[in-house]
Amino acid sequence: MHEGHAVALPLDNVDTDQLIPARFMSTPRDQGYGDYLLYDLRRDAAGVLDPAFPLNAARGSVLVAGRNFGSGSSREAAVYALVDAGYRAVLAPAFGDIFAANAVNNGLLPAVLPAAEIKDLMGRCPAPLKIDLQAGRIQGDGQSWPFSLDPVWRTKLINGWDDIDLTASHNQAIAAFRTHRQKNFPWAWPRATG
Amino acid sequence: MSAPRTLFDKLWDSHEVLRRDDGASLLWVDRHLVHEGSHHAFGKLAARDLDLAAPALTFGVMDHYAPTRGAATDPAIVRMMETLRGNAKRHGFTCFDLGDPRQGIVHVIGPEQGLTLPGLLMVCGDSHTSTHGAFGAFAFGIGATEVAHVLATQTLWQRKPRRMRIRFEGGLAPGVGAKDMALHWISVLGTDGARGHAVEYAGPVVEALSMEGRLTLCNLSIEGGARCGLVAPDAVTFEYVRGRPFAPIGAAWDQALEDWAALASDLDARFDREIVVDAAEIAPIVTWGTAPDQALPITGVVPDGAPEALDYMGLRAGQRLVDIAVDQVFIGSCTNARIEDLRAAAAVLTGRKARVPGMVSAGSALVKAQAEGEGLDQVFVAAGLEWVGSGCSMCVGMNGDTVAPGKRCASTTNRNFRGRQGRGARTHLMSPAMAAAAAVTGHLTDVRPLLGGRL
Ligand code: SF4
Asked: Which of A13, A134, B188, B349 is close enough to B383 for a disulfide, judged by CB 3.0 to 4.6 Å?
């Protein structure tokens, strides 16, 4: 269960290049990516923070966004920027595939809701919301909205699984597969060049 | 008899190590391509003190931050390159470093080196990994956490996407090519039109495309939201692969040809979605907005209804596309910087002068050398364009090659996102021939009248 403040970002196609402009991506992670979130969108031409921009006007941990959120590049830094800025969930009618997978890998919930409900929620922002991951519901304002999420991702978000450890438990199966593939499909290995 | 399967089903089945009860599959990865930008993933690996599961299947290249003139000086960039070099050494995988004649953009060198083969599963921490699907490989982009997982285990957890086929029937008009085919279907279906699907491109028009054209088509799959793009391998594919440095030879090659021949969708295989496009209807296409589906035939006018995009792009609804003046052109990127792309641009530029400045960056050092051997560099330079080194360059601006705020660029790249080519940059996507036409006229232009006798 997450309780937080929801902020509306009423834009479609907020791609990963907007979430974090490329020029910040050489930064080591431990320096924090929060300030880079939507860096150019939050500022005017002179580089000054626009006080009217929703993410500047209100702080939150839940972002209510438009269609196709996180489309574009595979840069996980887009998720780092959201997480480091304090976001724990994004609600949108649809997400870019790779972005959503990256989000789950960093404990950020990508919850899908129908466009009409997203619009309704946006109209209420900024507002306090509760997210019940187990039940797949969002609550607030005396109302409740179901969201959809891949069941594999739900379990992973709840358990906080680390895939590398999980995969290690299948080491034998992987080794057997590798041997089989190398023996039966020798062309699948790159020819050793001198 | 087993049930009929699509090409994608076959690729999936042949890589499934196991499937969990909840539907997640563990897939074996045949090729893992990494670049300087993969530093987050190597950091995760180092934090856990893990080794590479299969260094022989891992290949690195300097491309995203590669300088296109001189040497990199930004300390952050120099550090990232040092990191990749160091990791290649420590873990023992091949890295195509700056100055290596095989260096280039990851999605250009994979095919060029024979690392990309039909029937493989390939991943890379870059969304345009879909490019390699042109060979009938299952190839897709992944994030840093997944890159770390592949480095450590040579596998990846995935849920099977749905299958979709886009058939291009009829024939293409002269001056229209793979870039137009891709922008066309994306403009019709939208940037999330193929979300959750593996897209197989088929039909006579796709079969007639060269490998370069198929690579361009598959490259842009991600811009339509697809998980990956695919073309069934055929004689064109095999001919391209034969004799490449890392491609199989001898008995392994003979067996490969036999195995690859089975890599096609069965006649009665079912797709979750089928789209048919009449290729004869496709005209040269340009984007006018800030998403790749905001695209129209060059004969069109700027549409109404996207005020934010038009505001950013500095355009008015109702304006003719051919009246849009550009400040510069960029010919490059993993979408359109292979030899055929450079030839197409040069065909338009031969004997003509560019009215605006521009850069031409070959997709790899080998493409650059080949183009120079054919004298294409002379054509670009004589036209007044800059001929620079190979890398991602102005596609993403990470190496410092950016479009200045408010400037308008006719670009052969794949993303017209806000700020993609630099803060405040205005990008119009188009084919190499169309970018060359924009260079020659100084505005967006229908290339077809400029082609007379040059194709
Ligand atoms: S050229 Fe552009 S799209 Fe292609 S790999 Fe480089 S940054 Fe990515």
From this structure: B349
Strand order in the sheet with A2-9: A109-112, A89-92, A62-65, A2-9, A127-132, A137-140, A143-146
Give the atom of ligand 1 at the shortest distance from the alpha carbon of B337: 1
Residues B54 and B154 in one domain: yes
- Over residues B83-102, the mean pLDDT reads 97
Residue with CA at minimum distance from ligand 1 atom 4 = B334
Q: Where are the alpha helices (DSSP H) in chain A?
A: 16-19, 54-57, 77-84, 97-105, 115-124, 151-159, 163-168, 171-184
Q: What is this structure's pTM? A: 0.96
Determine if ligand 1 sits within 6 Å of the CB of residue B64: yes
* Class of domain A2-161 (CATH, top level): alpha beta
- Residues on chain B touching A181 (C-beta within 8 angstroms): 28
Chain B positions touching A155 (Cβ under 8 A) are 22
Q: Place A194 in a pLDDT band, splitting at 50, 70 and 90.
A: very low
Q: Cα-Cα-Cα-Cα dihedral of B42, B47, B53, B54, to 10°? A: 20
> pLDDT tens-digit profile of A93-103?
999 999 999 99
Interchain proximity B415–A72, CB inside 8 Å: yes
- Residue B395 CA to ligand 1 center (angstroms) comes to 6
Residue B383's contacts (CB-CB under 8 Å, 6 or more residues apart) are: B349, B352, B353, B354, B439, B440
Identity of the residue numbered A98: I
What residue ranges do the domains of chain A occupy?
A: 2-161
User: For position B243, what pLDDT does the model report?
Assistant: 96
**Are B419 and B301 found together in one domain?**
yes
How far is it, in rounded angstroms, from Cα B339 to Cα A95?
A: 35
Do the chains contact at B149 and A167, CB–CB below 8 Å? Answer: yes
Mutate to test the pocket of ligand 1, among B414, B415, B416, B417 (most ligand atoms within 8 A of CB): B414
Nearest to A26 among B28, B80, B115 (CB): B80
B107 CB within 6 A, ligand 1: yes
Is B387:B330 a contact under the CB 8 Å cutoff? no
Residues B173 and B276 in one domain: yes
Check whether B375 has a pLDDT greater than 80. yes
Residue B302 and residue B206 in one domain? no
Look at residue B256 and tell me if it is in a domain.
Answer: no
Distance CA B121, CA B28 (A): 7
Q: How many angstroms is it from B414 CA to the middle of ligand 1? A: 8
A173 contacts in chain B (CB < 8 Å):
17-18, 26
Specify the pLDDT at position B351.
Answer: 96
Residues B408-413 have a mean pLDDT of 98
